[in-house]
Amino acid sequence: MDYHIFKTAVNRFFGPFVGRDKRPAYFDIATAYPSLDKLTKGFPVIRGEFERLMAESAAMPRYHDIDKGERAISDASAKKWSVFMLEILGHKPAVNRACCPETCRLLDKIPGLIQAFFSVLDPGKSVPEHEGPYLGYLRYHLGLRVPTRKPPKLVVKGQDYQWKEGEAVLFDDSYPHKVVNDSPDIRAVLIVDVRRPLPMVPNLLNLFITNVVARHTYGKKVAKKAEEFAATSGQILKQRQAA
Predict the structure, then answer these.
(1) Residue 1: is its pLDDT beyond 70?
(2) CATH of domain 23-236
(3) Which of 122, 135, 167, 196 is 20 to 30 A from 18 in CA distance terms?
């Protein structure tokens, strides 16, 4: 079956269970997905490991280097949108996870986790409006490094949200959304996608799509790209350290 036909059919099926076009853009985390509060409370540890990566000049691929489907929004300018993948549909890049063991221990406590990665925008890097392909998940951001000068903002369904360090937001990624960023400093967040809470029958379909279909297609390809990049960049770092 054609991917777009399949996606449209599944989203149409999920529609009545999520409120169709009346579904919210943003969610209260404590009500909608309280287990994510473990990550928010773990902010000091997570930011510490992220800052260690930055201090060690850990190489991070551009988003479209590991997921070519993101090229239209990742490669829209010379400025980079870089990612550091920690989990994708059950695949866990070992080299990356070894750099952030405490963050990964916290992630392992989140039920229904689909993917998790550090997301870093270069100074002045905006992300054009786009929408996620699938109603079966919600997206969480934890602010790790947020510029105070001309702070960037997330806009979901026309509603603004301004990141704050140590603060989290949960939103519906399937709505049109964008990042407006005129800041002279980098913006970094931890992105975590989780399965959307659904009644039993649509939840079973969601489990099948994420744990079987997407895991062995999209997830496998992205994880392989992330692992290949990590292996190559690790070898380069060792060579530099030995020189």
Answers:
(1) no
(2) 2.60.120.330
(3) 167
